[in-house]
Design goal:
This protein has 263 residues and is α/β, with parallel strands linked by helices. It folds into 2 domains: 64 residues, Winged helix-like DNA-binding domain superfamily/Winged helix DNA-binding domain (Arc Repressor Mutant, subunit A); 182 residues, 3-Layer(aba) Sandwich (Rossmann fold), CATH 3.40.50. 37% of the residues lie in helices and 22% in strands. It is built from 10 helices and 15 strands. The strands form 4 sheets. Strands 6-5-4-9-12-14-15 form a 7-stranded parallel sheet, with helices on both faces. The protein has a 3-stranded antiparallel sheet with strand order 1-3-2. The longest helix has 22 residues.
Length: 263
């Protein structure tokens, strides 16, 4: 009986995977209706498929893993779904570091953009950002001043790119800069895939009084295309509780403060 049940479960999961690959995504409700299974059962199926690297879990279901993703910049909405609970908790913790009256930079990454949900109550804060997502979300908040960096619009990140001139940047006085990243290592620091963003972030990291990297557990040990903040130029990292103690201690050993959030 147990063997037949195991086969039945594997068969259902194979069919779920087939649906997601064919349609690109599927919701938990749709899969419950299709297989006449409970929400808990379908969620467990999706979790197992994600653990095998076959799908990416989303708020209400799952999406297909695209082939040959490595080294490619995926669309914002797909990247936003990955490790969403961790990104949300990291964004909340980052927003708590923002004080009234500060001038801050928030980059266009999916983790940094989560800060937008927790900034509405801040007073007289100026936000410099390339993110259209952050700008649009906070546009209705009268307490905040928003400066959108000029440049080309990037559809994969809903951000503008094109580094401001050094002369222009030299007039800025940034209290804090909040950076997402494609990866972090103790030797290379924070790195990213997009060359335009790397150049822009380098300039900003050199100007800010405090640089804060927002990196969930999946980003540790990853070396991406270009480093924009050397380890000695990183004041703090905020990560989730799935990051190994070993990785955290390596960062602390080189003088970086690390804060973890519970997911």
């Amino acid at each position: 009986m147990r063997k037949r049940n195991a086969v039945a479960i594997e068969d259902r999961q194979d069919k779920i995977l087939e649906i997601i690959r064919k349609e690109g995504r599927a919701s938990v409700k749709e899969l419950c209706d299709t297989f006449d299974m409970s929400i808990v059962t379908i969620r467990n199926d999706l979790t197992l498929l994600e653990d095998e690297g076959l799908v990416i879990r989303t708020h209400g279901g799952a999406i297909a893993v695209k082939e040959k993703e490595e080294g490619m910049i995926l669309p914002f909405d797909i990247r936003e779904e990955r490790n969403y609970a961790a990104k949300q908790a990291i964004g909340r913790a980052a927003a708590e570091l923002v004080n009234d009256g500060e001038v801050i930079f928030i980059d266009g990454g999916t983790t940094a953009s989560e800060m937008r949900h927790y900034l509405a109550d801040k007073k007289d804060v100026t936000i410099i950002t390339p993110s259209i997502v952050v700008t649009y979300w906070l546009a209705v908040t009268g307490n905040l001043n928003i400066y959108v960096l000029n440049g080309f619009f990037k559809r994969d990140s809903y951000s503008t790119t094109g580094a401001p001139s050094l002369d222009f940047m030299s007039k800025w006085n940034l209290s804090k800069a909040f950076f997402g990243a494609a990866g972090f290592t103790p030797k290379a620091g924070l790195s990213d895939l997009d060359a335009g963003f790397v150049e822009q972030k380098k300039i900003i990291a050199d100007k800010a009084h405090m640089n804060i990297g927002l990196v969930d557990s999946s980003k540790w040990g990853i070396l991406s295309l270009g480093s924009f903040a050397d380890p000695e130029n990183i004041d703090m990292l905020i990560t989730d509780d799935k990051t190994s103690i070993e990785n955290i201690e390596k960062a602390r050993d080189i003088g970086i403060e690390v804060r973890t959030v519970t997911v």
